[in-house]
Structure formats: structure tokens, C-alpha cells
């Protein structure tokens, strides 16, 4: 069989970002390939969120190149950035559902923000399809407070999927969940990757999550991509700094 050359959907090169004396990213590199699950691990405060903000144009890098879906973020106008964000799904830490809205309204919210991409007449169909993907069609008229933590996370995942994004960012998708629910979420993430061929960037501290989900991993340390490789490669490393991630 002919080997496929995969496209790069995110390309970060030599990214620098600091706040005064605090040099957070100091020549960081990352490539996300089409269809892969890339896990990024880094200690709390190491700059993972700063990197994500640079990726979606919420923060301006001091220097370096940041390209998403073939476009340089720094050259994009506000409206172009908005449109790009419709191609990116987010699953934030926690679930960040709107408490005062029903599940249906929570899922309709991104559709209303990106009307250029979707026709608002068939939202019911899209909402149900997204809820079916996470096994929760019966919750459509419920309020977030009526759902368990794991169900809330799944609804948040459905909301991230509803725009049929090309890329999904997961920020600590299993933090705060019991091990069984965490596993359910991980299996859902794998299903979604298979079904929609999404490219995913997954930020996690959870070694089990990284083992199951990653095609490749990057360790962020001292502002750089300190180590890269498969879970098997990195977890077998004899470098004490790398070993510390797998404790
Ligand atoms: N807007 C900001 N102004 C000043 N410092 C910031 C800002 N955002 C993040 N930082 C600093 O950048 C560092 C990395 O933060 P962050 O990216 O949130 O870490 P994490 O890897 O836990 O997501 C921290 O030292 C934080 O205090
Ligand atoms: Mg963070």
C-alpha cells in the first residue's frame, strides 16, 4: 500500500511568549497532523493555556509562527478568526455549560454564533445528532444541574462537536471525573476521532488517558517541546525529567 502523506493542520514554530520577566514559551514547536490524537503534557503553569490562546488568536505571541489549517494567525482579521474558530471545537476544563440554559439551548448556542456555516432551520436535527454521538438524546430538554458530572462532560463534548470541527482542543478532559466515567469519556473521544476523522490536541496530566488516546505525545518543559514521541517511547525514557511525567 502506498504510504499516505498527512497534512499538517497546526504548525507552531519557535513560539516565544512572556510576561515581563516571566518567559513562558521560549522557542516552542508543535505540529498536529491530520487525523491524529496528539497529547500535550506539561506541569501546571508551564504555558499550555498560553499556547492555546496563541493558537486561536486570543493572545499575541512575542515572536514565532502560528499556522492553523494553513493560515498564519497573525495575518488574520477579526472576522476571519471568528470563522476559523468555527472549525475548532473546544472542550474546556470542567464542562462550562451554561447553567441557565437547557441542553438543547446549550447545543444551539454555537450554531447561532456561526450562522455563516449553518442554516438555523435544521438545528433540531443537528442537536439530536450531536447528542446521539455521546449517547444522551434523552437529555435534550434537561437543565445541566439535573445531569451527573460525567453526563455534563458528554453534553459539553456534544456541543464541541456540533459545528463539525476539523480540530478539537481538549483541556484536561478527564480531570475531576471518577475513573470509570473518565474511561467513558476517553472511549467517546476515540469514537469521535474515528467517525469524523478529527484532528485532536489533548492537554492532560492523566497518564492513563495519554496511554489510551495518544498517537503521539509532546512534553512541554522549560518553555520548549522538551520531548516528543509515542507513549511507549516516552514512558520508557531514562531521562529523569521525562520520567517525572509518568509517575
Ligand atoms: N494574561 C497573563 N498575564 C500575565 N501572566 C500570565 C497571563 N496568562 C498566563 N500567565 C502566566 O503564564 C504562565 C503559564 O500559564 P498557563 O498557560 O495558564 O499555564 P498552564 O500550563 O497551567 O495552562 C503562568 O506563569 C501564568 O502566571
Ligand atoms: Mg491551563
TrEMBL record:
The protein's superkingdom reads Bacteria
Q: Which Gene3D superfamilies match?
A: P-loop containing nucleotide triphosphate hydrolases
Q: Which GO terms describe its molecular function?
A: ATP binding; ATP hydrolysis activity
Question: Pfam families given for it?
Answer: ABC_tran
Q: Which UniProt keywords apply?
A: ATP-binding, Nucleotide-binding, Transport
Which residue ranges does the record assign to the ABC transporter domain? 10-247
PANTHER family, alphabetized: INTERMEMBRANE PHOSPHOLIPID TRANSPORT SYSTEM ATP-BINDING PROTEIN MLAF, PROTEIN TRIGALACTOSYLDIACYLGLYCEROL 3, CHLOROPLASTIC
Q: What is this protein called?
A: Phospholipid/cholesterol/gamma-HCH transport system ATP-binding protein
Organism field? Salegentibacter flavus
The opening ranks of the lineage are: Bacteria, Pseudomonadati, Bacteroidota, Flavobacteriia, Flavobacteriales
Amino acid at each position: 500500500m502506498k504510504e499516505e502523506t498527512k497534512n499538517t493542520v497546526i504548525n507552531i514554530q519557535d513560539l516565544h511568549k512572556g510576561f515581563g520577566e516571566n518567559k513562558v514559551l521560549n522557542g516552542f514547536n508543535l505540529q498536529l497532523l491530520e487525523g491524529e490524537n496528539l497529547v500535550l503534557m506539561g506541569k501546571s503553569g508551564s504555558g499550555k493555556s498560553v499556547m492555546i490562546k496563541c493558537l486561536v488568536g486570543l493572545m499575541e505571541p512575542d515572536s514565532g509562527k502560528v499556522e492553523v489549517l494553513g493560515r498564519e494567525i497573525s495575518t488574520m482579521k477579526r472576522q476571519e478568526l471568528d470563522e476559523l474558530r468555527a472549525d475548532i471545537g473546544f472542550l474546556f476544563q470542567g464542562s462550562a455549560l451554561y447553567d441557565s440554559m437547557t441542553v438543547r439551548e446549550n447545543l444551539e448556542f454555537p450554531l447561532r454564533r456561526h450562522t455563516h456555516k449553518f442554516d438555523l432551520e435544521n438545528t433540531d436535527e443537528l442537536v439530536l445528532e450531536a447528542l446521539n454521538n455521546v449517547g444522551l438524546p434523552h437529555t435534550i430538554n434537561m437543565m445541566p444541574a439535573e445531569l451527573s458530572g460525567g453526563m455534563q462532560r458528554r453534553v459539553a463534548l456534544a456541543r464541541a462537536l456540533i459545528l463539525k470541527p476539523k480540530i478539537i482542543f481538549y483541556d484536561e478532559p478527564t480531570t475531576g471525573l471518577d475513573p470509570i466515567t473518565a474511561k467513558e469519556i476517553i472511549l467517546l473521544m476515540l469514537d469521535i476521532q474515528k467517525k469524523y476523522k478529527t484532528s485532536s490536541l489533548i492537554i492532560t496530566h492523566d497518564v492513563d488517558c495519554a496511554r489510551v488516546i495518544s498517537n503521539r505525545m509532546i512534553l512541554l518543559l522549560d518553555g520548549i517541546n522538551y520531548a516528543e514521541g509515542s507513549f511507549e517511547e516516552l514512558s520508557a525514557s531514562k531521562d529523569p525529567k521525562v520520567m517525572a511525567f509518568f509517575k
